[in-house]
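Hey, resending since the last one bounced:
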Amino acid sequence: MISFLTELWESIFTPGTTPTLVLATHATFALLVVTLTVFAFLTKSIHIINLLVLSLVLWGILTWFINEINTLNSEKQSENTETKITETKATTKSAAKKPTSVNTTKKRKV
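The structure tokens again:
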């Protein structure tokens, strides 16, 4: 439990989403939904039911957003990997084709 809290505290200062932060978010929303469901059955208040619906919608939107961030990060990582592979191949080909001595001086017309 202590290690989870430590990881949660450190994940707050880490850019992006971490598995610990996502787990804590889902657990918090699950407890909120359970609490509001119990209150809705006990009070039969339309206000509590509205809060329950709003919390479910917010949880769904937040889950979608987390999945989009993870998708973009994985695409970015695969793009970076492909770029590095392409650059390595291009560097290897250009090094193989490049002559060892090239005359780079230009002659002036007088």
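The mean pLDDT is 83.

Sorry for the duplicate.
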